[in-house]
Amino acid sequence: MNRAVYPGSFDPVTFGHLDIIKRAARRVDELIVGVLNNNAKIPLFSVEERVKMLEEVTKDIENVKIVPFYGLLVDFLEDVDAGMIVRGLRAITDFEYELQMAQTNHRMNPEIETIFLSTNVEYSYLSSSMVKEIAEFKRDVSPFVPEMVAGRLKEKIIKKESARNEQ
Fold first, then answer.
1. What pathway does the annotation place this protein in (predicted)?
2. Which of 40, 84, 99, 154 has its Cβ near the most Cβ atoms within 10 Å?
3. Residue 153 annotated as binding?
């Protein structure tokens, strides 16, 4: 079976992520979207919340499976018996970082290949960080994320503000 992993923090999932998921899913038998608990970042959404959002927005793509993971990506690929990593590239700065990661992963496990999909130009500027910042300022994020995600973002921002005001 041709199985690939598209890893990321997806905090939150954007239309750019969904574009890569849909395009990658057409090229493999099974695409596992690996939701990373990244210790270097403080996420707005828990891993469980991100998994649920991704499951909801990918429910119509039959060969996509959402799986949380912790630790090294190469170990996760071994756990799920996948030999390919899918990464999206927005700009040349993404390429420099992603190339380093691909080479490191390949060095750690020569059986692992990384394929890069260039982001649709419509989403080339888009990032989860940008979406969260727009939401923090109570602006409309619906052009950037699915409707359900926009609603969850709004709820999360309201909760965060309430907790801050109670302190």
1. Cofactor biosynthesis; coenzyme A biosynthesis; CoA from (R)-pantothenate: step 4/5
2. 84
3. no
Residue with tokens 């690996």: 34
Determine whether 17 is an active site residue: yes
The single residue of 52, 65, 90, 156 carrying the catalytic annotation is: 90
Q: What is the pLDDT of residues 31-55, one digit of tens each?
A: 999 999 877 778 999 999 999 999 9
Q: Write the DSSP symbol of residue 39.
A: T
Q: Which listed residue (26, 27, 41, 160) is catalytic? A: 41
Any catalytic annotation for residue 65? no
Is 26 among the catalytic positions? no
Active-site annotation holds for 41: yes
Do the annotations mark residue 98 as ligand-binding? Answer: yes
> Would the annotation count 127 as a binding residue?
yes
Pick from 21-25, 35-39, 136-140: least confident: 35-39
Question: What is d(CA 137, CA 68) in angstroms, rounded to the nearest whole number?
Answer: 29
Which one of the listed residues 17, 50, 132, 152 is annotated catalytic? 17
DSSP sequence for 110-146: TT-EEEEEEPPGGGTT--HHHHHHHHHTT---TTTS-
Of 67, 54, 82, 78, the C-alpha closest to 145 is 54
User: Residue 84 pairs with which residues in a beta bridge?
Assistant: 4, 113
Tokens of 141: 């994020």
